[in-house]
Amino acid sequence: MRHNKKFNHLGRKKAHREAMLSNMAASLILHKRIFTTVAKAKALRVYVEPLLTRAKEDSTHARRIVFAELQNKFAVKELFGPVAEKIADRPGGYTRILKTGNRLGDNAAVCFIELVDFNENMLKEKADKKAAPKTRRSRRSTKATAEAPAAESAE
């Protein structure tokens, strides 16, 4: 029975799963977007978001804790440099999972997981929405307003 076992084991033993998540987290930090299966992406999100939160405070202790998880000094340098600057004011939700369909070979659900603040297309759309002037529209239909003056003039 799997009582009280809340995370996905991904069909791997503990050491293999931890090594895989560490490598995927380092790749996500270095490349800002990686393609993977939906199950792995969801497991990676749970793994990497606390590391991103830890990177907001640049201290030796925080760097050592993150390095103990990632085992990749280039990823740690990138995380505490440009990535930490961009996520400094965000209160969580640093990653986005976008499903892309199914893989041809085994029909597995595939997606890409990316760092939210590094997708230039999404940031551009968000800026365009803020810049667009908002128009106020009435809830009344144009037909009702057109008939009202005609009815008044008939009397």
TrEMBL record:
Keywords: Ribonucleoprotein, Ribosomal protein. GO terms for biological process: translation. The keyword Ribonucleoprotein applies. Residues 132-142 have a biased composition (Basic residues). Part of the 50S ribosomal subunit. Contacts protein L32. It comes from the Bacteria. GO terms for molecular function: structural constituent of ribosome. The keyword Endoplasmic reticulum does not apply. HAMAP family: Ribosomal_bL17. This is Large ribosomal subunit protein bL17. GO terms for cellular component: cytosolic large ribosomal subunit. Residues 143-155 have a biased composition (Low complexity). Residues 126-155 are annotated as: Disordered. Belongs to the bacterial ribosomal protein bL17 family. SUPFAM superfamilies: Prokaryotic ribosomal protein L17.
